[in-house]
Amino acid sequence: xxxxxxxxxxxxxxxxxxxxxxxxxxxxxxxxxxxxxxxxxxxxxxxxxxxxxxxxxxxxxxxxxxxxxxxxxxxxxxxxxxxxxxxxxxxxxxxxxxxxxxxxxxxxxxxxxxxxxxxxxxxxxxxxxxxxxxxxxxxxxxxxxxxxxxxxxxxxxxxxxxxxxxxxxxxxxxxxxxxxxxxxxxxxxxxxxxxxxxxxxxxxxxxxxxxxxxxxxxxxxxxxxxxxxxxxxxxxxxxxxxxxxxxxxxxxxxxxxxxxxxxxxxxxxxxxxxxxxxxxxxxxxxxxxxxxxxxxxxxxxxxxxxxxxxxxxxxxx
Length: 317
Ligand SMILES: CC(=O)N[C@@H]([C@@H](O)[C@H](O)[C@H](O)CO)[C@@H](O)CC(=O)C(=O)O
Known about the structure:
With 317 residues, the chain is α/β, with parallel strands linked by helices. The chain has a single domain, classed as TIM Barrel, CATH 3.20.20. Helix content is 46%, strand content 12%. Strands 1-2-3-4-5-6-7-8 form an eight-stranded parallel barrel, surrounded by six helices. α8 links the parallel β6 and β7. α3 runs parallel beside α4. The chain starts with a helix and ends in a 6-residue tail after the last helix. The structure holds the ligand CC(=O)N[C@@H]([C@@H](O)[C@H](O)[C@H](O)CO)[C@@H](O)CC(=O)C(=O)O.
C-alpha cells in the first residue's frame, strides 16, 4: 500500500502506438527502435493498449505480448521508468486476465475505461465496476480512464473520485481525456490537502489544450501527439509551469493546427488513430498502418496530408 500512496506520474506520458506490419500483424521487431525514439525525445513514461495503441483491435494474447515487449525493451533497459497498462476489455473475464498479467510482468499501474456495452448511467454502477477491476490486484495503482468522446460515458468525475475513494484503496487518479475543465478543477480538489497530503493524480489527455489542463492542476499529460512532436509538448509544459503563457500558447496553437489536419484525414481513414499513426514515417519512425477496420492513407492521400501538415507548421516540431 505504501507504493500506492506515493505513486504519482507527471510530465509527458506517451500514449503508445502498436507497431504493425503492412498486413496488419503486430510488429514486435519495431519495439526496440520505437522505445529508443521515445527515450531520445525525453519520454520515459508510457500508456499502453489504450486508444492510440488500438488496444480494442488487438486479441487478448496480443495485448499481453505487447505489454511484455514494452517491459523487455523499456523497463528492463531503464529507458522507461513508468508504464501504465490499459486493461479495459469487453468482458470482465478478459479485463481481470489483463490485470493479472500486468501485475505478473511488472507494470507500474493499470487503467480501465468504463464498461463499453452496458454503459453506466449511475456513479454507483461505475464505482462498482472499477472496484471489481482494481480489487483483482489491490497492490497495483489504479487509474480510471475517462474518455467520453469515444466511450460515451460522461458522469461527473469529482463525484466519482469522492465515491470511489471510500471503495477503491488503490485508486490513484484519472486519465482525463475530456475538454471539461470544470470537471477537472473539481477532481483536482478532491481529498486535497488530506489523504496524507496527496491528492489524486490527474493526467490530462487532450493534447490540443494540454496547457489548460496543466493550469487547472493536472500533473501530467498522456497523449498520442507526444510520439511525433514531443519537443513542442515539453515546451508547452515547461513554459506553462514558468508562467510564460504567451510562448506556451503559441506552441499550443501549433499542436492544434496539426490536430485539425489530422482530424480531417482521420475521418477518411476511420479514426484519428490511423491519421496519427501515418505521421510517424514522416518523422523517421515508421510503425506501419493501423489495423482493420481502420485503413491507412493511399499514396495520394499521404502526399496531400504531408503537404497540409507542412502548411500547419510541421517544420517547427
Ligand atoms: C481520444 C484520444 O484518442 N485521445 C488521445 C489524445 O492524445 C488525442 O489523440 C489528441 O489529443 C489528439 O486529438 C489520448 O488521450 C488517448 C490516449 O491517451 C490513449 O491512447 O488511450
